Amino acid sequence: MLAHLLAFGVFAAEVVLPPGHGEAIAGAEHTTAPLKAPGGSGSASIPLGATFWASPMDPADRKPYAIDWSKVLEADEQVDELVHVTMSEDGAMVGVQIDTSEDRTPIIDAGGKKVQVWFLCLPEFQDDPAFSGAGVNIAVTCQIRTDAEPYRQIERTSVLTVRQQ
Question: Residue ranges per domain, the chain?
């Protein structure tokens, strides 16, 4: 029932996360790097300065995507906590979710510079016409807390393009 409410945009798709570390396996084409000082142009659902993952996701895919925080962190600083990951209502409306199933829960990479997230599209939405042509751009907002003293809390938005491949 909750999945359907999320899919229809009744609730924002926010995932609050317990501490978790692991080995990020997302390749370079599935990694984006937020900037220290975001710039560029935005839209109604995608904020100014959002970065895009280079490789789009097919609605039937289940692949890891990473956010490399190196450009935002100080040289001696690491991601200490993944506070939350939030997907825009645009994603929920077409059945795209943050995968929190076993072995796919969002993690902080063992090196402390990346966060890895898995996405999925509910099977009943995988043939949605919205995924034709250019597909759908979905804002994914991630907030981290660093190990600096005092800690810094940083939030950036990345964009996942979902389209039929």
Answer: 2-34+50-162
User: Peptide bond preceding 150: is omega within 30 degrees of 0, i.e. cis?
Assistant: yes
Secondary structure class of 155 (helix, strand, coil) = strand
Q: DSSP characters for 50-115?
A: PEEPSS-B-TT---EEEEE-TTTS-TT--EEEEEEEEE-HHHHHTTEEE--STT-S-EEETTSSEE
The two tokens of residue 140 are: 């994914």
Q: What is the pTM of this model?
A: 0.79
H/E segment holding residue 5: helix 2-7
How far apart (Å, rounded) are the C-alpha atoms in residues 25 and 3? 27
| Tens of pLDDT, residues 91-139 | 999 999 999 998 899 999 989 999 999 999 999 999 999 999 999 999 9
Contact by Cβ (8 Å): 83, 143 = yes
